[in-house]
Amino acid sequence: MTTDVRKTFVDAGYIAIGLGVMGFQQAQERGRDLRTRAGEVTHRVEHCIAERIREVENFVAEGGRQVDRRARLARQRAEDQARATVARATDIRSEVTKRVDPVVAQVQAQVSELPERVVQAMEPVAARVREFAGSAA
Fold first, then answer.
1. Residue 45, SS3?
2. Smallest Cα–Cα separation from 77: which of 85, 87, 88?
3. What angle do CA 39, 56, 60 make, to 5 degrees?
4. pTM given for the model
5. Is the dihedral of CA 124, 126, 127, 133 positive or negative?
6. DSSP designation for 1
7. How confident is the model at residue 132, as a pLDDT?
8. What are the pLDDT digits (tens) for 70-92?
């Protein structure tokens, strides 16, 4: 009977060791599977990220091209508007000069005649004053 108990314990020990070895091997196999799957997922994620980076770079590049195109168009419009404004200002200056120069000449002529007119207007008054002054003396 002691031999039977002893043999039972030894057999149980071998079974336990065998189960432990099998469990260890199964854990190793699952670890390899997980590493393989993790590698595949990592590869897919890296590929997806690389694709998104390319999309963003293309989007940014296209946006830059659009900004450049719009900036050139805005600059051209501003230059055209500035040229048109300068041309219009030159036309207005010419028109004002044509209209103002004769008026200035006319005003200058009238101003130069003003002292003579004042003297002519004052002559009768001065004569009358002399008359009164002569009769009063």
1. helix
2. 85
3. 160
4. 0.44
5. positive
6. -
7. 75
8. 999 999 999 999 999 999 999 88
